[in-house]
Amino acid sequence: MPGTVLLLAASPMGRGRLVDAASVLPVLAAVAPDVLAGTDTANVVELADPLEPQAVLTRLRAAAAAPGPLTVFVTGQLQLDRRQHLPHLALARTTPATVRYTAFPWHWIREELRLRPSGTTALVVDLHADAETWQYLRSTPLDSGRGNPVHGRIAPPPARRTLAAPSYMKAVATVLRSGHRPPLDQLHQEVVARLGEEMAGDILLTAPAVTGGDPHAAISAAVQAGRHAEADALAAEWEQTAVRAYGPGAEDALHWTEVRADLAMFAGDAVRSCRTWLAVASARLAAGQSTDAPAVEAAVDRAHHQWGRIEDPARARELGPALAELRLRVPGRRQGALDHVQQQLQQLQTQG
Question: What is the pTM assigned to this prediction?
Answer without folding.
Answer: 0.70
